[in-house]
């Protein structure tokens, strides 16, 4: 945690350096980047033919217009009912070591596999998906060129989708320009909000680095029966009701907030943080009640809004027939 209140110029530069954007995306050695593979993955990401009824795509839950989420607590899945958890954003997923709110997927390839085949989500079956795509000449040509050894397979399909997903990076926001030295890029209120974020509120204890996440799991004391990470770490008391710290980029587009969309807007979730959450043995020791004045609350929200990119455009691909 850092605090910029009273910091001199050199100290402020050190604090701001913790939030400087990376200059490149890291890809796995066994799935190196190529623009052709990313383009193929993008087509598959938006293609409803990967779902059982051919009516849902990855973008149905991870819509670019809403920060690669959807603006409802639970997206509608294959069973035509809302899902129990809100779809996490795919923004900056290349820097996230474990995926899903509970961290059950160790890679983007495994993350893509889950929703495609989950009965409640896309309800796809890879034998049928492979057969469908094999009947499409353009897909056969793409896979044949990029994966000449075995063409259209489950693994190659997941590799292509994951390659595209690693390119989904939040664009530059006013906050980034401020970090790079433009003193007027964000308002004085947002600058005061950053001081609160890195100081009094303790937000930076979990929301660290340029993507504003420690990629760890914390119980915030949110009322819920969902034990989150506790499913995978039953002997870890602090894993009960714990969920992965979400990144904070492009928040303006991503409401509602919380693992089940419990908070309608930024004002609601900030108000919840002020309460300190429910007291229970698993609650993170970092989660403590706050007392903010109306002016401080407004400053903090102004800072959070400064993390949204000024221009976010995702061109939809032309799908082959």
Labels describing this entry:
mainly alpha; two-stranded antiparallel sheet; 1% strand; 321 residues
Tell me the fraction of residues in β-strands, as a range. Answer: under 5%
Q: How many strands?
A: 2
Q: Which strand order does the major sheet show?
A: 1-2
Which range best describes the helical content: under 10%, 10-25%, 25-40%, 40-55%, 55-70% or over 70%?
A: 25-40%
The separation of the N and C termini measures 52 Å
Instruction: Count the DSSP helices.
Output: 10
Radius of gyration: 21 Å
The biggest beta sheet reads:
2 strands, antiparallel
Produce a short descriptive summary.
This protein is an all-alpha fold and 321 residues long.
Describe it for me?
The model has no long low-confidence stretch (mean pLDDT 94). The protein is mainly alpha-helical and 321 residues long. The protein is built from ten helices and two strands. The longest helix is centred in the middle third of the chain and has 13 residues, at 154-166. Helix 2 (35-45) crosses helix 6 and helix 3 crosses helix 6.
List the helices and strands and how they pair.
Layout: H1 9-17, H2 35-45, H3 108-117, H4 126-134, H5 137-146, H6 154-166, H7 174-179, H8 188-198, E1 217-218, E2 243-244, H9 266-275, H10 294-305
Antiparallel strand pairs: 1-2
